[in-house]
């Protein structure tokens, strides 16, 4: 019966494919419309190497709650891929600054809703301080997002980190001309420029600070001041607590709420870095959407 109700709800929803102009690129996104006028507009800024399709079930659920939800893929990746990643010049700064900004601007044009909610998964959560129009953001939720430094990690995951940043990752990227993520178990291939900048930030104790003023602009002098919920998970080896702690100074003028969620408290097997948006972990979704 429940499955039938979900199928009927999905059949009533409208999912619209949209094109989003970004600086030097065109992104492909999907707008999930609720039945009736949306209560608010929600955007999902995805994690590094995670296609928007991964967030589709969550986005449909958001629409079922009465909100417009926009997902999209970064340039030269997922549905936005127009060339082989070997030929892409994209960087993580392009994804986090230009593409995230362009997608949020597109969200504002889709519907004149009374509120906007930015949900940032990993990479999706730590670039907001660089964005324009922060006065048009009403609420932010970051999920498994931290300014990760390679020494933060614990055994045995630490060995995987060493391999990815100092051994297999650099060698494979130099040989192939792109990050062969599929072969390395990451699920997706990515442009070399994304990998090298990602590596630079995660192997520096100051993360992206050295790139501010060069490949990154200065942070918005009018910072975000609204409510932000910073969500971490006790079983997330990729974004440990030390990295999430570094998020708070980025949003020092915001109204910060911290949550470190234990899968056991939701009767879930595991969540880790990626699985908060999967259907089997849907018990977490009201915490992410922050339904009140």
From TrEMBL:
Residue stretches making up the AB hydrolase-1 domain: 42-127
InterPro entries: AB_hydrolase_1, AB_hydrolase_fold, UCP037442_abhydr
Alphabetically ordered keywords of this record: Hydrolase
UniProt KW Hydrolase keyword: yes
GO molecular function: hydrolase activity
Protein name: Predicted alpha/beta hydrolase
Organism: Pseudovibrio ascidiaceicola
Lineage: Bacteria, Pseudomonadati, Pseudomonadota, Alphaproteobacteria, Hyphomicrobiales
């Amino acid at each position: 019966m429940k499955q039938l109700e979900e199928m009927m709800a999905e059949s009533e929803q409208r999912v619209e494919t949209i094109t989003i102009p970004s600086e030097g690129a065109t992104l492909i996104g999907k707008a999930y419309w609720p039945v009736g006028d949306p209560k608010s507009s929600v955007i999902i800024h995805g994690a590094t190497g995670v296609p928007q399709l991964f967030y589709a079930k969550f986005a449909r659920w958001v629409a079922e709650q009465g909100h417009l939800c926009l997902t999209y893929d970064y340039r030269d990746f997922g549905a936005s891929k127009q060339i082989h990643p070997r030929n892409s010049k994209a960087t993580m700064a392009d994804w986090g600054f230009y593409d995230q900004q362009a997608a949020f601007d597109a969200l504002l044009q889709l519907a004149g809703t009374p509120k906007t909610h930015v949900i940032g998964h990993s990479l999706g959560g730590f670039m907001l301080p660089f964005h324009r129009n922060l006065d048009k953001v009403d609420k932010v939720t970051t999920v498994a997002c931290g300014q990760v430094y390679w020494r933060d990690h614990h055994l045995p995951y630490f060995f995987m980190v060493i391999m990815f940043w100092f051994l297999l990752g650099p060698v494979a990227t130099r040989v192939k001309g792109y990050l062969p993520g599929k072969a390395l178990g990451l699920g997706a291939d990515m442009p070399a420029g994304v990998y090298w900048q990602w590596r630079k930030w995660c192997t520096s104790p100051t993360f992206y600070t050295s790139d501010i003023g060069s490949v990154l602009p200065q942070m918005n002098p009018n910072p975000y001041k609204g409510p932000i919920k910073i969500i971490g998970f006790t079983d997330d080896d990729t974004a440990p607590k030390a990295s999430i702690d570094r998020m708070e100074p980025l949003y020092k003028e915001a109204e910060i709420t911290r949550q470190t969620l234990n899968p056991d408290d939701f009767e879930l097997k595991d969540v880790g870095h990626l699985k908060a948006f999967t259907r089997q972990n849907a018990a977490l979704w009201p915490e992410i959407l922050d339904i009140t």
